[in-house]
């Protein structure tokens, strides 16, 4: 249900945004050159310098005497001490493990990992993800800064995910296998709590119930909680979202529930807009209600595409991208690419790629493979292996082969049929390039 679901989930999770391509840099000053030189010397220079400082301070610090005292102390220890030390460390480790298990069970994430990423990583020179908040008016420079400061993540969301009830459950009925792993469900739970909850949920009883529903691991329990939320508030948009995702067994049923969610979500969003400046809590509530509204419209567009109304889906997605340009966390442009490819509107696809296939933005399998398909399409009609073997590859053919290699290297877990369709038109080119 969240952006981490998908039959190609493992491949998407394995890929991480590649590093930006190197480019020209302005001349460095003497301070920058000195700093770069010190950084390039490596840890060995600092290790030698540390040994030199210790040798110089050996007399004031009484290193020899202290070392002898430590040696006497270690020799006087009995085996009972080491047994007690091992038992104590095991007890502390066990308590930490129990706390981690309890925290993960309650919040769906690791406490140690959360603290290290949120607090320790910035102190050690890491970058924080600074995606612009939805509903906020940010300038172009702030948006560009946010793009440059996007941190690499272990798992990148899959915006082409299917509906749990209408599609994943049908897969289970046909094959008898569960397409989603526990890891997928955990990622979904984290996304749900990020997108659909906030600190003011206690002010509305229905939101309190839904906050617990997003943490439930059992689908029937989540569906039951959604109905409880609707009994408390018939305009609970997130409850309709959960039912559309998990209870609806067809796309038509999902679309019907999403339309009810849209009606309730627009009402709540307008109400939050009027109160957003009253307090920070109201601003957080507006961000949450904006996330809900954008998610509903995006899913309605996906329903329209799956039901054959592709032009309607494209219009909804374009309107969303214009109305909420800072909200890039849902990767709506990748859903737009999917719809434009189905319409065979290749010029529009190229325009979207020109905007989002940029080194300052995180890459994705959808962008890489779409770029490879377009470049392959431009040269496949006139390509002849015999001619290419005589004259060599042209610039466009080389670019197409490199795009295919780039896509497969970025995410080799995309279904093999997709890879075959992408590369089959340039089999001769790939062979020539491999032999070069």
Automatic annotation (TrEMBL):
Residues 1-22, 127-146 are annotated as: Disordered. The chain crosses the membrane at residues 36-57, 81-104. Belongs to the ST7 family. It holds the Pfam family ST7. Keywords: Membrane, Transmembrane, Transmembrane helix. Coiled coil: none annotated. The lineage of its organism: Eukaryota, Metazoa, Chordata, Craniata, Vertebrata. This is Suppressor of tumorigenicity 7 protein-like. It comes from Trichechus manatus latirostris (Florida manatee). Its main location: membrane. The gene is ST7L. It is found in: Membrane. InterPro entries: ST7, TPR-like_helical_dom_sf. The keyword Transmembrane applies. Residues 128-143 have a biased composition (Low complexity). One of its GO terms (cellular component) is membrane. It is a multi-pass membrane protein.
